[in-house]
């Protein structure tokens, strides 16, 4: 019985990499999720999502701890890393204006907040993108930032 309870609690840690594999730097969340999956982290569920808001809300509904990873566009230098705690601050909607969906990451988080449906812990890691045009492959600055972003996500899992 204690083993079942522990497994249920530990399985409630979810990482979602958000993006499009065919819009260059927009794929960074997906790529980091894939690299995390390769590490075979015990008791952590890892998903890749397009960033459509209602789908995101459905996918995280049972998570206690949620870490979202996505490309952002704020005007900062490409590769700049952001770590936002959704319980301490609102998520800037203009960060995610390259989303192909009208109801994106920031809107999903804010709607979930209004409905009192945020996971107990929700961290958003954003990586400043440079090139969101059609195509594959990250820009050099974003590629360089992925290792540090990966390290920061792993640190969040230890808290």
Shape: globular
How large is the share of residues in beta strands?
Answer: 15-25%
Write down how many β-strands occur, each being a DSSP E stretch of 2 or more residues.
Answer: 5
The helix/strand order is: HEHEHEEHEH
CATH class: Alpha Beta
Amount of helix: 25-40%
- Largest sheet, if any? 5 strands, mixed
Number of helices: 5
The CATH superfamily turns out to be HybD-like
Query: How many structural domains does the protein architecture include?
Result: 1
List the uncertain runs. Answer: 1-9
- Strand arrangement, largest sheet? 2-1-3-5-4
Mean pLDDT: 86
Oligomer: single chain
**Cα-atom radius of gyration:** 15 Å
Query: Ends: how far apart?
Result: 26 Å
- The CATH architecture is 3-Layer(aba) Sandwich
What are its keywords?
159 residues, globular, 5-stranded mixed β-sheet, Rossmann fold, disordered N terminus, alpha/beta
């Amino acid at each position: 019985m204690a083993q079942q309870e522990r497994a249920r609690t530990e399985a409630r840690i979810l990482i979602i990499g958000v993006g499009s594999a065919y819009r260059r730097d927009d794929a960074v969340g997906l790529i980091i999720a894939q690299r995390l999956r390769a590490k075979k982290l015990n008791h952590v569920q890892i998903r890749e999502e397009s960033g459509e808001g209602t789908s995101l809300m459905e996918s995280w509904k049972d998570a206690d701890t949620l870490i979202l990873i996505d490309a952002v566009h704020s005007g900062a230098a490409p590769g700049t890393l952001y770590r936002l705690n959704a319980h301490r601050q609102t998520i800037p909607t203009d960060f995610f204006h390259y989303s192909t969906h009208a109801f994106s990451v920031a809107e999903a988080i804010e709607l979930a907040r209004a409905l009192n449906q945020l996971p107990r812990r929700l961290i958003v890691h954003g990586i400043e993108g440079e090139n969101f045009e059609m195509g594959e492959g990250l820009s050099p600055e974003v590629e360089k930032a992925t290792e540090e972003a990966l390290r920061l996500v792993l640190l969040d899992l230890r808290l």
